Amino acid sequence: MIGRNRRGNRQANMKARIGIATAVLVGGSAVGVAAVAAASHGPATTTSATSAGFALNFHHRISEQAALASALNTWGSSHQQSFTTLAQMQSMRTFTQVWHHRTQFAAQRGIVVLATRHFLLVKSANGALHLWWLNGATKFANVGNTAMGMTAMTGSTTVAQAAMVANNMQPAAVTMAGSTAVVNQMAAPVAKPTTVTVSTGNVTITITITSTTATVTQPVTTPTVVATPTATPTVTPTVAATPTATATVSATPTAKPTVTPTATPTLVPVPTPTMTATQSTFTATRGIQRGDLVFVAGVRVHGFLIAKLVLFAAPTTVTPTPTPTVTPTVTVTPTAIPTGVQPSSTSSFSGSKS
Q1: Which pLDDT score is estimated for 243?
Q2: Against a cut of 0.70, is the pTM above it?
Q3: Cα separation of 196 and 114, whole Å?
């Protein structure tokens, strides 16, 4: 009887484990674990469900080129699969670019310095700035409430767990931006105008950021064709005949035609007036704005970084832990009055009575 009970308990435990594993594989997140936990052990809180979701520790075993190519290719069919692939990509904290077949992929983790309709300016933890061009095919995802998305954005299960379970974005700020001071600097109004010059492809862009506005100046150079008029070939025949009495004809040979070759058109680059655009410093583009933590993946074409996928989250809690201060406390103990003894008081008055 005892042996039967043991086998029954062992089978029940095995079924529970299989159920949890199946839920994780099907759900792909902490939701499946929470459902099984609620069915087996009663209601599960949000914290325990989220904690259970991080029981699977991702190993960075997928190469950068394979992970980027796969994640961008599967985004249209499964966001979850793309998140999982990026979470298992080899550790990359700042910026990388790799070749896969004939495509040069690139990726960057950092903080948004400026977001416009046409590009994102991103600063990594090492201070490197890169400008990513946006187009209609660029995909955006706010992963602030997604455990798998947060892991894919930060590249760290530990950092994502701190953000999702403890609501602590400080580790994410340090990982992505370098420090909480940088994040707080991006969130606060600019103390004095800052000018940044970025070269992308064959274009140099100057960005001036103030406390309220950001001005983008982009010189445009258009090649203008300056052609020399075509020369017309000229032929000058010369014939001179002198008759003599002996009927002998003397003729000067015809001169060869003189041909002037056609001039080749010359391309002279003539700079046109610069193109300037002004917007608010904290303008949001597809939900992302200055100060957000971001992971950008895309390709490099002719020197230009083209963003294909943008994962971002707002650093809601990045306040550094304050140093505790000790405040001395003064305790006053009142003097006890024995029972039955009335306190005596003496009053005095001086001056004239009115």
Answers
A1: 54
A2: no
A3: 11
